[in-house]
Amino acid sequence: MTTIQFDNSLMPFSIELTSEKTASAGEGAAEPTNVAKSTPNNFRNVVFAAIVITGCGCDQSTSPNADAPGAGSLPVNRQVGGSSMPVDVERLTGSSLTYIGGSPSIVWEFTSDSFTLTIEGEPPPNELFEALLGPGRTASRMTGGWHFAPDTKGLMFTQINAGDESGVDEVRLSIEPAGLVRVNLGALQYNILDARQRAQLKNQEKPAE
């Protein structure tokens, strides 16, 4: 008999290997067979050990996908998993979107049918400029109209202007929720403040009288 002792500080136990003879068909001789028997410590200890050993071999790493076409020079952030709040007309109306990368400062402000986009700082979001204004053009402030695309998975921006100059007639940028307080617009991710949250923030910023 061979005894294997598992020295577990939480649930110590041992397993005994004993040899038993079993008869083979057509032969008088019997071959010894190892039989595992757990000591009376508790059968659930054996189960616990099996779970621990199996679990140690599992790969529990995660690899969030941060790829997005058209990201260009600016980093792209994608939230994976978690709860999301739908993005619809009601939520966008009166809201502001602020680029989470910090620099450059990119802020969208929406009414029920128009938008204002302000961009300040470096590096310039060239892909966004090109999408809204055309190749080789930049601006610190743009305005225009917007509405949801028929499939509701994109925003259509129309009649885009940068000062006295016109941008493209129409362009579509994909939009999707990225958790409770963020959205992905085009290749970039933004924090979103709805109309109610913006009103509360403005009230908090008012100087005390």
Count of beta strands: 12
The helix tally amounts to 4
Largest sheet, in brief, is: 8 strands, antiparallel, barrel
* Assigned CATH architecture of the largest domain: Beta Barrel
Reading the helices and strands in chain order gives EEEHHEEEHEEEEEEH
Amount of beta strand: 35-45%
Q: Which regions have little confidence, pLDDT < 50, spanning 5+ residues?
A: 8-13, 17-27, 33-72
Indicate the mean pLDDT.
74
The coarse silhouette is globular
Structure, explained:
This protein is α+β, with helices and mostly antiparallel strands. The chain folds into 2 domains: 55 residues, no CATH class; 117 residues, Beta Barrel (Lipocalin). 18% of the residues lie in helices and 38% in strands. The chain has an 8-stranded antiparallel beta barrel. Strands 1-2-3 form a 3-stranded antiparallel sheet. Strand 8 and strand 9 form a beta hairpin. About 27% of the residues have low confidence.
